[in-house]
Every structure is written in C-alpha cells, then in structure tokens.
Amino acid sequence: MAKTKRCLPSGIDIEIKDMSIDDIDFCKDSVKVAFDNGQPVAVNGVNASRTLWLRKGLVRIDDWYSKNGEGPPDSALKLLTEDDKIKAAELIQKAQVVDRKKNTATTSMSS
C-alpha cells in the first residue's frame, strides 16, 4: 500500500503510512473494556489509544514530515483539534484494511 494523503476538518494535511501487523495489533489492544456480570461497564484508554494510532500511523502532519520512520512529536500532534484527532485515527484504521478483491498480490492456494 502506498502512503495515503488526506485533509482533516481543520484543513491540515496528513499522510498515512502502511503500518505493520504488529503495530496494528498493538494499537487495537491498547483499549481496555471492564466487565461486570458479563456486561461492559467501562472503557479505558480511549485517548491514549487514539494518540497511539496517530503516532504509529502518520508520516506527515501539516509541515512536519517523518525523516527516519519516527512518529509525530507532541508539537505536531498539538496542531490537531479534537475532531482532527478522531478523524485521523479513523482514516488511519481504514487505510490499513486491504480489500482482497483489489489486492493483486494475493496468491492462489490451488493444488
């Protein structure tokens, strides 16, 4: 997957990278749900999880660019509004999904 360029609600441009499976799993596992008698009663770590998606999934925010694969620094993340952060995290997650019908790199398992 190539890098994906998007514009956030505030007008800030971002660039999303192709994340490794390990990074995707790490981000997905960062939210904790507490249960009581089998029912969810609390969700913990939502904001930290969103920040993790941003740090692992972005290579550009406005004028900041990743030079050596590093995640965005606080100074770049602080440019984003709360709506921007929510939208960017959604876009990052959607960009990691591969549509098998369009993926020409899949191989056949026929014998």
Low-confidence stretches: 105-111
Number of strands: 6
Strands across the major sheet, in which order?
1-2-5-6
Summarize the helix and strand pattern as letters: EEHEEHEEHH
Mean pLDDT score: 90
Helix content: 25-40%
Terminus-to-terminus distance: 28 Å
Largest sheet: 4 strands, antiparallel
Principal-axes shape call: globular
Domain count: the total is 1
* Structural Rg: 16 Å
Structure class: alpha+beta
Separate helix tally: 4
Strand content: 15-25%
What does this molecule look like?
With 111 residues, the protein is α+β, with helices and mostly antiparallel strands. A four-stranded antiparallel β-sheet has the order 1-2-5-6. It has one domain (4-95). The chain contains four helices and six strands, in the order E-E-H-E-E-H-E-E-H-H. Helix 1 (21-28) runs antiparallel to helix 2 (46-57) and helix 2 packs across helix 4 (82-95). It starts with a strand and ends in a 16-residue tail after the last helix.
